[in-house]
User: Which sequence fits this backbone?
């Protein structure tokens, strides 16, 4: 007789065991994307695999409040709380975008107790941009 495996989760999915494995990581990269409408904070390991992420929308902010500095601060705190529990001690920070949440997110990251190796601005800059439309004829 074969022994049946105990299934965890809903009976529809039929998933066996826990899919989420907790990795102990010492060093990671924190990506902050701050647009005018939203702020997204993603925490990855050195190889780029996502460990934790959060956005102002998932934190409960709706509409124009998603682009505020307070929403960015809350978002960064939520994303970092899980990785601090997993043992992250050092991190590099990459900030992208022109939004209001840039400084607030960085302040929240510094307050979390993680040692920052460096903070880099990776906002894309055009070297000459798109070709402008041709002039209007009168």
Assistant:
């Amino acid at each position: 007789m074969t022994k049946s495996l105990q299934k965890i989760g809903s009976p529809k999915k039929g998933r066996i065991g826990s899919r989420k494995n907790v990795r102990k990581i010492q060093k990671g990269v924190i990506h902050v994307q701050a647009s005018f409408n939203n702020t997204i904070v993603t925490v990855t390991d050195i190889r780029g695999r996502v460990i934790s992420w959060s956005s102002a929308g998932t934190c409960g902010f709706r509409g124009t409040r998603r682009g505020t500095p307070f929403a960015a601060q809350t978002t960064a705190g939520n994303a970092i709380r899980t990785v601090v529990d997993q043992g992250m001690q050092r991190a590099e920070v990459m900030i992208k975008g022109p939004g209001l949440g840039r400084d607030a997110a960085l302040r929240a990251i510094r307050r979390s107790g993680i040692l920052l190796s460096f903070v880099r601005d990776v906002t894309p800059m055009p070297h000459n941009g798109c070709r402008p439309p041709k002039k209007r004829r009168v």
